[in-house]
Amino acid sequence: MRGTAGLFCCKILDAAGDIKIELVFADSEANLRDRMRRSGASIIHLKPYRSRLHNHSEAFTLPFLKSLLQLVENHLELVTSIDITSQLFSDLESRAICVAIMNNIKNGKSLSKAVADFPNYFNVLAVKIIEVAERTARLPEALRSIISYVSMTVSIRKRLKTAATYPLILLGFAAMIVIFWLLVVVPRFAEMFAETGMELPFLTSCVLSISSFCINHTFILIGILILVISSGVFIIKSKHIRKRIVKLLPIINNIRREFLVMNFFYGISIMLQEKINLLDAIRSIANVGDDIDTGKLEKLIQNGNSLANSMRSCKIFEDYEVSIIETGEKAGDLWSAFRSVSDMMRLHLQQKLEKIINLLQPLTIILIGLILILIVCSIVLPMYSVIDLGI
What is the largest CA-CA distance in the chain? Predict the structure, then answer.
């Protein structure tokens, strides 16, 4: 099922004669129909279901892991714990994931293999940690580590979204005000100025020209607006294009680097804490930081280079980050070193985001104020001239 399973919305008639609507994971429609037929149910209507949690997987993952941890700590059987957890969700998709995981376990799979079938919700790091925990009988500790990792990642992402969303809302509001001025208010003043026949200042002439253009080419402007919005949506959905654009913005690219490296260090620290070999840990963490050449790092270590020197060769880690890892490597305490760097980077990243948010808000307000003052002055100043002529 891994990577190929689809989610289907089914209207079924069960063996008891009741009609139900369920979301079910299956490899294909044929496979699903066969499963239903074997269970004594018949499908009335079937269609693929578009996941609503795909881009917000933490909305399922965190509650699932927290509930599972609490139940496992109370010594409940794993299948029973997942069954109870499924009933805590109100949406059908989350329940369908829980049921699919539970059925995988009932069919003989371990928990790690059961959740591995759902890579959109459980990444390779989480699967590897659970796999090791099953061998060492330390599932609660593993679940705590994963919860801590996911919570930290979600917290940073929310701060990043906040830093970007607030200025965009203000700019959008300002754009609506400017459009209203240009399309409704300015044309009325333009008629009045035309009647006086006075020579207008350069700024006023520019504003009147822009207003006239907007009125005469409204459909073109609407088309441009639709094109801009469509391009924005396309860029947001396209990871490759978004990544290239981010690299052109030094401040945002630096934040992205810190976020990826922080996740990389934190993931490695969890793996080493669970007694996983360093090379296995690097392989397992490969998908966490897509800018980090883990393949190159692994080869350098296998060729006899120290971890610190191998990291320097990757040219994505800062000197102070490598220095801390080098100290931990010499002291034989890599786990603490990775965790220390990760914690330092998390605090530094939070402080940086706080500064950016605190700076963006007044800058955005000042920019909006300047635009409005520019438009108002372009109209108000000629008004004084009109009044003087009237006198």
Answer: 95
Residue at 1 is within a domain? no
Q: How far is CA 327 from CA 47, 174, 264, 268, 344, in A?
A: 57, 52, 18, 16, 15
Report which residue type is found at 23.
L
CB 15 within 8 A of CB 39: yes
307 and 168 within one domain: yes
* pLDDT in the model for residue 391: 46
pLDDT, tens digit, 9 for 90 and up, residues 171-184 = 777 778 888 888 88
Q: Among residues 134, 151, 168, which one ends one of the domains?
A: 151
DSSP state of 280: H
Does the pTM exceed 0.70?
no
Transcribe 291-327 into DSSP letters.
TS-HHHHHHHHHTT--HHHHHHHHT-S-HHHHHHHHH
Show Cβ contacts of residue 68 under 8 Å, excluding neighbours closer than 6 positions: 81, 82, 85, 143
